Amino acid sequence: MNKVAVAIVHGIGDTPADFANDMITELTTLRRFMVSFAADALAYQPLPDERSIYDAIHAKYAETLKVLTLKAGASAPLVVLSHSLGTIVTSNYFYDLSRPSLLPESVTDVHGDEPTPLEKGRTLTALFTFGSPIALWSLRFKDFGKPITVPAPSVPAEIAKAGGWYNFYDPDDVIGYPLRTLNSAYRAAVKQDLALNAGGIFTSWNPLSHTEYWTDNDVTQPIGDTLAKVWRAANP
User: Fold this and answer.
1) For residues 205 and 208, what is the distance between their CA atoms, to the nearest angstrom?
2) Distance CA 116, CA 98 (A)
3) Domains in the chain, start-ordered, CATH in brackets?
4) Which residues pair with 124 in a beta bridge?
5) Residue 39: how many CA atoms within 13 Å on its side-chain side?
6) CA 183 to CA 189: how far, in whole Å?
7) Cβ atoms within 10 Å, residue 208
8) Cβ count near 32 (within 10 Å)
9) pLDDT, tens digit, for every residue of 175-222?
10) Which helix (H) or strand (E) holds 83?
11) Residues 170, 167, 104, 67, CA torsion sign
12) Can you tell me the distance from the alpha carbon of 233 to that of 159, in angstroms, rounded to the nearest whole number?
């Protein structure tokens, strides 16, 4: 494998021997981060003759929704928080649910004979995506493809008003992008694209901001507000 030589040249001030160490660490971390994401995305992508990883991940998603059914109830409003590649998995999973012929055996086995409304995606009320590469994934489809519907059509009107699809992205994040600009269908499906500055002094200005959404107040506060609204709507 051919290598690339990188020279780091110091400017004004003293020049200690280790002046470039912080930058080297930052660039090495970024490289590992990008390689890891690309590897995960390639492994997940279903192919005509190989979709075992795709099916296994969706089976795990089905198992998780079954657990939520036991904890919250068969018809409980469902709110999904998803990050990075997880936003693609979520989009694909609920898209497949809306077209039963697309469901793999790994999922139908988990569902059993009588899956609940929650398991079938019929109570999906709110979706929060952050650092989402759906815009990149959608390049595989004509006109960027079709989004899922959030809230699901079967969600009662008063509860549906409290939900919707909210997409958070940091302009410095090279993986997460706005979704409403993809096409008219996404413009109708996504309630808001919300730009923010995720991370701290060392991560907010570069691609490493991709990992910083989880605890950013600009993400957690709207999620908390929506959860409260959905709960109140479900408990008038």
Assistant:
1) 8
2) 14
3) 51-234 (3.40.50)
4) 78
5) 6
6) 10
7) 20
8) 10
9) 899 999 999 999 999 999 999 998 776 677 666 788 888 889 999 999
10) strand 78-83
11) positive
12) 5
